[in-house]
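Appendix B, Record 12. Input sequence as logged:
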Amino acid sequence: MKKRALLFLLAWLAAAWTFSGCSFWIPTGPETPAFTLDETLLPQYRDRWCYSRLDAQQKENYSAVYQAVWQARDTLSTVSILSEGKDTVRAGVSVTLPHPLTDEERVSSLYNSFIRDNPQFFFIGNLYGYDGNQKLHQLKLTFTMDQQTRALAWQEMERATADFLKDLPAGDDFERELWIHDKLLLQCEYEQDVEVTGDVPAKYADAFSAYGALVGGRAVCEGYARAMLLLLQRAGIPGTLVVGSDKDGALHMWNFVTINGLNYHLDPTWDDADWGVQHIYFNLSTVQIELTHTMDPSMEWVDTCTAQKDEYYHRTGARINSFALEEIAGAAAAQLRLNKPVIELSFAPAGFANGRFFVQNREWFTETVDALLPDGMLRLWPYETLADTTHCVLILIPTEE
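Logged structural output:
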């Protein structure tokens, strides 16, 4: 699977954990001027996951950052920033904060909240600076693209997003989420060629962004997660980004979503298999995701979730909680009637071995499934079986025999 080659460097993660991407100095400067909120921009972010959980002062600081980035998204804008002991001029934007901050932790919280909420600003880099007198009154963000490249990329991104969503179905949250998930994985390919040497995000900026996934069609896990978040936001579905690691300790990013009022984990990268789209990591509870993923402790706004209603296999009737062979065959027949490209069957742990034995006896299983199909119009195709023993899932993939 593509997930085996996970490569991941987060701008905001580096800042939150080590501050290795930040620059910090304390010059003299003027008093902070009064801030005027642009009410026309507020609807773009007031319902975002992190913004809605900030205190009043940080919300106003966030608004100042949003307005500055919005105005600079396609205009000439530079900042002077200290990096590796050198003062350099880069594409970027300097934001005067209406409420100066007293410590680096508050700056990091503001930066991370903004980056997590706004995947549409794909051009923001992983290097940022801040300065002030006794308090930190200015935040400096760097961009990965110059003005001309950024302006063109912004237009491409807006067109790609609108084109992606033009046929979005009118169903409930689950149906729209599933449609977005499957379409994204069909059009995006995991970027295998990223070399983990040097400044990886700078060399492969597109692969770590929603732009890479939606315009370039190639991304690593961070790009998948950011693209998924952007599309869900445009579809009116709340969500945020989760950072952590997989069971092998590799850094990883995925999504946390609110579907029909309940929270779930969603990992589009790990659902993008070499052979096609699967749904093993679609709307998992905290217990389920923790079988293979570990969240970083900094994810204070990611709640424990226990819901199963819109977990993929539960919602689609592919979750089998008994040993009855007729139920197993019936779940497969139902997916054939829906013309599913593969058959996915999820089992309670106690019944997994029983289900696997039945499915791997192809002649017996095929005969049982075919007997449930109407008038001989459908037949179970020849298949090979893939097994995820961790989540007790069997996937039947058509073969040419």
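The two ends are 24 Å apart (CA to CA).
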